[in-house]
TrEMBL record:
<keyword id="KW-0132">Cell division</keyword>
<comment type="similarity">
    <text>Belongs to the FKBP-type PPIase family. Tig subfamily.</text>
</comment>
<dbReference type="InterPro" id="IPR027304">
    <property type="entry name" value="Trigger_fact/SurA_dom_sf"/>
</dbReference>
<dbReference type="GO" id="GO:0015031">
    <property type="term" value="P:protein transport"/>
</dbReference>
<dbReference type="GO" id="GO:0005737">
    <property type="term" value="C:cytoplasm"/>
</dbReference>
<feature type="domain" description="PPIase FKBP-type">
    <location>
        <begin position="160"/>
        <end position="220"/>
    </location>
</feature>
<dbReference type="InterPro" id="IPR036611">
    <property type="entry name" value="Trigger_fac_ribosome-bd_sf"/>
</dbReference>
<keyword id="KW-0413">Isomerase</keyword>
<dbReference type="InterPro" id="IPR001179">
    <property type="entry name" value="PPIase_FKBP_dom"/>
</dbReference>
<dbReference type="GO" id="GO:0051301">
    <property type="term" value="P:cell division"/>
</dbReference>
<keyword id="KW-0697">Rotamase</keyword>
<comment type="function">
    <text>Involved in protein export. Acts as a chaperone by maintaining the newly synthesized protein in an open conformation. Functions as a peptidyl-prolyl cis-trans isomerase.</text>
</comment>
<dbReference type="Pfam" id="PF00254">
    <property type="entry name" value="FKBP_C"/>
</dbReference>
<protein>
    <recommendedName>
        <fullName>Trigger factor</fullName>
        <ecNumber>5.2.1.8</ecNumber>
    </recommendedName>
</protein>
<keyword id="KW-0143">Chaperone</keyword>
<dbReference type="GO" id="GO:0044183">
    <property type="term" value="F:protein folding chaperone"/>
</dbReference>
<dbReference type="GO" id="GO:0043022">
    <property type="term" value="F:ribosome binding"/>
</dbReference>
């Protein structure tokens, strides 16, 4: 017997009773099964008296019988009421009201009902950018700056120069820890030194010295210096100016063009840039689409699923730190930190699952193949990368999940108020001033 009570929007409670006679019958059957093989000193296997088997294994058999009976009764009720259980039910015994039954309460959460909403009133902006010579030139400029070298300069220190200095810092006339260095090199404007220190060095010529006061920021990482005013003596020993490489055969070779063909280098840079622009546009549209889905489907999510997702995110963060060479044994990474992110991911998972099923947005084999070939295109041997994906089901599943996301994005874009919006290269690539 059982009855169901709705505790909250997603929480359910089912009260159950199991006849003791059924329990006793199951216990006896289990003990008889054990008696066929159980071993005890002085008896051959299978010849131990039933009374002794019951005395030794009775509590275990009874616990198993009760567990099986409760699981069976709960399963029947869940199926009869067509409930989708999220997480694991909590089973609690009730105070006995008679001698012929055992009574229990099962408390659990169910999945929310997701009804796909009309998204036609939702707005989605799709960035538009065509990669041309200007974008290639900007990218080559970035690549050149990454390969900057420094050569001796004959002028006073300017912004962007690399300088080598000796300096000594004193607070109230006394040298402080970390305030002294010899042959210390840094780039003006590189952010390695505090801005006030860099400003003090600007305009100096090699061999010149300077004494100046400087106040550390109130939030400076060294607590004994935070907010304190100190005095520095600095001597300029060398000054070097930046030199960018020319866009020539040697530069092309540094970018992997074996024969140094500059035109081929530009073509490859453009092709890679087009892939990156496409990826970033897709990422921005996808982010907006996911927000649209959450806005259009205000559902409550089971706490059990959020806890599971939070735990998984914490584990992923731990693995990521370890992959970067960090030791996480004593690093507290708590699942609670990821609660908000977990709620969002669970909501999107439930909404997208219903959307994929209702709108038949499942990944097709040719779509999976296409996305894997797109991944592989930027590698030296694309066929090797394709084979790597197809060699393990787990890798294929990851590609399939991405295809499904793309299908969902395409469906929302096709059904919402989608407008194309021209965007700048810097805005899209995150280089805006």
């Amino acid at each position: 017997m059982s009855n169901q009570v709705t505790v909250s929007a997603l929480e359910r409670r089912i009260d159950m009773s199991v006849p003791l006679a059924d329990i006793d019958k199951d216990v006896e059957a289990r003990l008889k099964q054990m008696a066929r093989t159980v071993k005890m000193p002085g008896f051959r296997p299978g010849k131990v008296p039933f009374r002794m088997v019951a005395q030794s294994y009775g509590p275990q058999a009874r616990s198993e019988a009760i567990g099986a009976a409760v699981e069976k009764t709960l399963g029947e009720q869940i199926r009869a009421q067509n409930l989708r259980v999220a997480g694991y039910p909590s089973i609690e015994p009730k105070e006995p009201t008679g001698t012929d039954v055992l009574e229990f309460t099962a408390v659990f959460e169910v999945y929310p009902e997701v009804v796909i909403s009309d998204v036609s009133a939702q707005e989605v902006e799709r960035p538009q950018l065509e990669v041309g010579e200007a974008e290639v030139a900007k990218t080559l400029d970035v690549l050149r700056k990454q390969r900057t070298t420094f050569v001796p300069a004959e002028h006073a220190v300017q912004d962007g120069d690399r300088v080598t200095v000796d300096f000594t810092g004193r607070k109230d006339g006394v040298e402080f820890d970390g305030g002294k260095a010899t042959d210390f090199a840094f780039v003006i404007g590189g952010g390695q030194m505090l801005k006030d220190f860099e400003t003090a060095v600007l305009g100096l010529n090699v061999g010149e010295s300077k004494t100046f006061d400087m106040t550390f920021p109130a939030d400076y990482h060294a607590g004994h210096l935070a907010g304190q005013t100190v005095q520095f003596d600095v001597v300029l020993k060398t000054v070097e100016e930046p030199k960018l490489p020319e866009i020539d055969a040697e530069f092309a070779k540094t970018l992997g063009i074996a024969d140094g063909d500059v035109e081929k280098m530009r073509e490859e840079v453009k092709a890679n840039l087009e892939r990156e622009v496409k990826r970033r546009i897709q990422a921005k549209v996808k982010e907006r689409v996911m927000n649209v889905l959450i806005e259009a489907h205000p559902i409550e999510v089971p706490k059990a699923l959020v806890e599971q997702e939070s735990q998984q995110l914490a584990e992923n963060a731990k693995k990521d730190f370890e992959a970067r060479g960090m030791k996480t044994k004593d690093m507290p990474i708590e699942a609670a930190w990821f609660g908000e992110q977990a709620v969002r991911r669970v909501k999107l998972g439930l909404i997208m699952s219903e959307l994929v099923k209702g709108k038949e947005l499942h990944a097709k084999p040719e779509q999976i193949r296409a996305i894997i070939e797109d991944f592989a295109a930027s590698y030296e041997d694309p066929s090797e990368v394709v084979s790597w994906y197809y060699s393990q089901p787990q890798r294929l599943a990851q590609a399939e999940a991405l295809v499904i996301e793309d299908n969902v994005v395409e469906w929302v874009v096709g059904n919402a108020k989608t407008t194309d919006k021209p965007t700048s290269f810097d805005d899209l690539m995150g280089n805006a001033a």
